[in-house]
Amino acid sequence: MALKDIKAKIGATKRMHTVTRAMEAVSAVKMRKTQASALSGRSYARAAVAILTRIAGTEEVKKHPLAQDREVKKIALVVMTSDKGLAGALNSGVLKQAALAIKEYRTDQVIVYAYGRKGEDYFTNRGYVVAKAYENKRDDVPLSDMEALADDISAGFLAGNFDKVVVAYTNFKSTFEQIPVQHHLLPLSLPALSIIVEGIVPAKGKWSTEEALVAPAAYEVEPSADEVLGVLIPRLTAIALYHMLLESKASEHSARMVAMKNASDKSKEVTRDLTRTYNKVRQAAITREVSEIVSGREALAA
Fold first, then answer.
1. Which residues pair with 114 in a beta bridge?
2. pLDDT confidence of residue 285
3. Which of 96, 123, 149, 197 has the fewest CB atoms in 10 Å of its CB?
């Protein structure tokens, strides 16, 4: 390889390092903000989902249309991914979980609600019906967006457009550990909600030591079960979805920061190797030129 080519590669690698280092710094700032939002909201999310868990075993809820088990002819999939890449295996892990959730169903039996362009593109390219697609660019997503999504899902379930709702997203554990998961959301059931509650584990505080939730033997709902549950269930479902989105956001920025850090470290390593190669080739060229000069002098002297 010519010295000019090696030098050009060194320059390109240094420029790449500058870009990845800047992206790492931006992701680190966003990561701290989204982690704080996700962690601070875990206690509230657990309390909210716990209300659903407590009433999920009552007779009133068992009779509610959103809790009615029926033969699954169609399934709704809510998949939460990012709009951007450069986040390692984050999106591929979520899409793999989403694919596992619907592997038993035909394409025409699946209705997709995609929160994030990566999920939308994945299922659109494979011929699935994407009922609604949402951008996932903002970090300060309002709860009203999740309320609208919960209303759409609840309305579709009640109308019989689908018989089951599953959510695929990334659960945030730490900066270096994000776990793609899938959860059954509708119809409401005590086991499914208990799994969601168990996944909301705060780093510290009183909620981290709470015991498992158990439905009470009896529960009275006033003024009437239909009136209260008709408002309560979609509202709490929206809160559960909102917390899943916060977890996904924290996971996205953490994964991107780690990916950019790895890329920065790798670019520095490549720059060192190329510099070493450049010096070796340059030294070899100098040695060859000196040898040619000495040989020419000896030939003239002879």
1. 79, 133
2. 79
3. 96
